[in-house]
Amino acid sequence: MSRRFTYRSVPRFSSGIDARACRSDKKLRHNSAVVVRKILAQPRVDLAGWYSEPRTQSTGGYLELNWHEIDRFLMGEAWSGSLIEKHLTELADVIGPRWGGSPEDLRTAAYICDQMEAAGLDRAEIETFTIDTWNHGAVSITLPDDANRKIASLPFLRCRSIDITTPLIDAGHASPHEIDALGDRIRGSVVLASISPEPFTPAEPFTARIARLAAVGAACIVAIEPKTGGRMEYSNSDEWLNTGPRKDAVPVVKTSSEDGAYLRRIASSSPRIHVSVESTYFDSEAHNTVAEITGSTHPERHLILAGHHDTVLNTPGGNDNTSGTIGVMETARVMAALAEEMNVRPGMSIRFATWSGEEQHLQGARAYVTRHYSESAAHRESSPLLNINLDELSTGHMKGIVLAFPHLRKFMQSQLDTMNDGLKCHVLAHMDAHSDHFPFVEEAIDASITWRWRFWGRHEDANFHHEAGDTANKLNVRELKEYVGPLARLLLRLSHVAPDDWPANPLTVADVSRLIERDAGRNHPAFH
Q1: What is the DSSP string of 35-91?
Q2: More confident residue, 521 or 160
Q3: How many other C-beta atoms can be found within 10 angstroms of the C-beta atom of residue 434?
Q4: How high does pLDDT run on average in the chain?
């Protein structure tokens, strides 16, 4: 169902700029660009990638657009009108951690919806859904025979409750040969394992090694965090490609790199280890947000720019994913300003969505796809021609777009080439379920992610997500502006290509299901 909220903000904005005031103050919003409202009829580069003479809507062509002036406006507004720091303060400092289904999740959705309305979008709504969620209480690892020495501990997400004392068994990296060598000693025991794969062997994701340990009877796994300095981040213990949220998986509790090394040093003597986790599973209400700028020529069709606004527990998520959330909000603001000040609207409608529940098996995006696009939807809509997903934008600058399916590659590259920014289009060689584009992929809907650190070029200091240290200062303000401008330019270009001129998607849901089963359990180094 859809709900409308008014957000009562805590007045701690560092910028001191109110979004509504920005809308009325044209000088503040765009003091470095000439506001051009007249659309020039002159030869141009056609949006499908070839030169043509001007065409008008009356003759069945595209709306004539002066792309030079439009691009100047969009890039200038992305920089000089930016509200990034205001949103960053509110989301990361004031609201803070935003676990899907929590009160902070609702508070976040209300804030985003209010800001979208203030920016002048045609509609902004909250869609509520039921989330299968989880939370934990006390967690501990101790050594009973060493004066109950405390070992650093953090449960994996959705870890079930456990209270167990057994001898500690060291399984190394949990590679097949290591597990075979331990034999029946693993059954019923607490097993120590490195998250990092064994060097010089065929790499496996840790989720596959967890499943192997569970299959031979491990009662609990203590996983060694690869990050050093006492840092630990929340991780997931199951394969997301073909497995939904579980309540019966083997408990996995993380320890720090340093304490893991200590346990490994003493493991040969099989010391007793006590692991305790208090946790609960329950249903709750979670909240997606959806705003829209209605298209001028094909309002019945749409594109989606989206990113998740939730975080894991106990982190404000400066990088993951306040950066992507603000990327959506700012791109929407810039495009709404273009419509207001230059009377230039997208051809197709553009939706700007933020999802809850990404950190809990992509439940928010999946709820939206199910409600709007699946065969079971009560009021099924035409699928978006493309979903662009924004996640962890502060780990690297934008280098292009990465598609889930290959048939749009040449088409997308032709649009990027008109921007003259050197941006490139690539295609994933495998199914990737590690962000909110995937529920669209499951329904054979074209989806993409931005080309950033997952492929190359990750910033050396951008190694924070799922942990308390992922604070507001981990968001790269300058680079986020560099995302917003090009994203607005790309979306506008794509929206003005008539839906019938887009390459058809040849894949069916059954085709995608086969690809998912092909890739489930396999290691893809860029994603693990």
Answers
A1: ---SPP---EE-TTSSEE----GGGTSPPP--HHHHHHHHHHHHHHT--HHHHHIII
A2: 160
A3: 18
A4: 88
Nearest residue to 355 (alpha-carbon basis) of 447, 493, 431: 447
Strands 220-224 and 44-45: unpaired
Please give the C-alpha separations between residue 353 and each of 125, 369, 478, in angstroms, as whole numbers: 10, 12, 23
Name the region of 48 (left: φ>0; alpha: ψ -120 to 50; beta: rest).
alpha
Query: Could you report the per-residue pLDDT of 446-476, keeping only the tens digit for each?
Result: 999 997 645 556 777 778 889 999 999 999 9
Nearest to 125 by CA among 109, 138, 140: 109
Mean pLDDT over 419-439 rounds to: 93
Token reading at 440: 């669209």
Q: 244-272: per-residue pLDDT in tens?
A: 788 889 999 999 999 999 999 999 999 99
Cβ atoms of 224 and 194 within 8 Å: the answer is yes
Report d(CA 317, CA 322) in Å as an integer: 6
CB 388 within 8 A of CB 448: yes
Which string of DSSP letters, residue by residue, matches 134-186? Answer: EEEEEEEEEEGGGTTEEE--EEPTTPPPEEEEEEEEE-TT--HHHHHHHGGGG
Specify the 3-state DSSP secondary structure of 3: strand
Contact indicator for 80, 32 with CB cutoff of 8 Å:
yes
Peptide bond into 148 cis (omega under 30): no
CB 360 within 8 A of CB 105: no
Give the separation between CA 193 and CA 181, rounded to whole angstroms: 14
User: Which pLDDT belongs to residue 21?
Assistant: 43
By CB atoms closer than 10 A (0-12, 13-18, 19+), residue 278 is middle
DSSP reduced 3-state for 218: coil
